[in-house]
Amino acid sequence: MTATAFTAALASPGNQPRATFDALCALARRTVGARLFTLMTFDATTRQARRIYSNMPDAYPELGTKPVNQTHWTAHVLDGHRTFVANDIAGIAEVFGDHDLIASLGCESVINVPIVVDGGVIGTINCLDGAGHYTPERVAASEALKLPGASAFLLDHFLTARGA
């Protein structure tokens, strides 16, 4: 998946936002790698999170909202607007209570890329893979996901506001 193919998916009528989310997943897999890929929206006012996409919906379904608990992860990503990386299961366990499920899927590293629009995080791109996967080079490459990610989250917001 290339940026051009992502743009074509974004512009295509029908099957939205799924077509765009699938294209973003493919772009992330090509750019940084991801065994597990999810998209989470965040509402800064209510401090609620919502999973809007998962490439493994049996393990990580796209259901409802949940409160965001204040941790060093939220301070780093949601408040600090910085990408979070943990390259082993111990690092994941420090911030994610579902670390056993993550490990059972063969994932032992994570990168959470915050998508910032108008001064606030509107969502995160979450990529998980094998231990040690998110090297400094891959973390730097993740910057290229921010504009397509913003497009995907804004499309979701647009369609939700429109009642689609």
Write the SSE topology.
Layout: H1 3-11, H2 18-31, E1 36-43, E2 48-54, E3 65-67, H3 72-79, E4 84-86, H4 89-93, H5 99-104, E5 109-117, E6 120-129, H6 136-141, H7 146-162
Antiparallel strand pairs: 1-2, 1-6, 2-3, 4-5, 5-6
How would you sum up this structure, described in words?
- The protein has 164 residues and is of the alpha+beta class.
- It has a single domain, classed as Beta-Lactamase.
- Helix content is 40%, strand content 24%.
- A 6-stranded antiparallel beta sheet has the order 3-2-1-6-5-4, sandwiched between helices.
- Helix 1 (3-11) packs antiparallel against helix 2 and helix 1 packs parallel to helix 7 (146-162).
- The longest helix has 17 residues, at 146-162.
- The mean pLDDT is 94.
Question: How would you summarize this macromolecular structure in one to three sentences?
Answer:
The protein is an alpha+beta fold and 164 residues long. It has helices spanning 3-11, 18-31, 72-79, 89-93, 99-104, 136-141, 146-162, and strands spanning 36-43, 48-54, 65-67, 84-86, 109-117, 120-129.
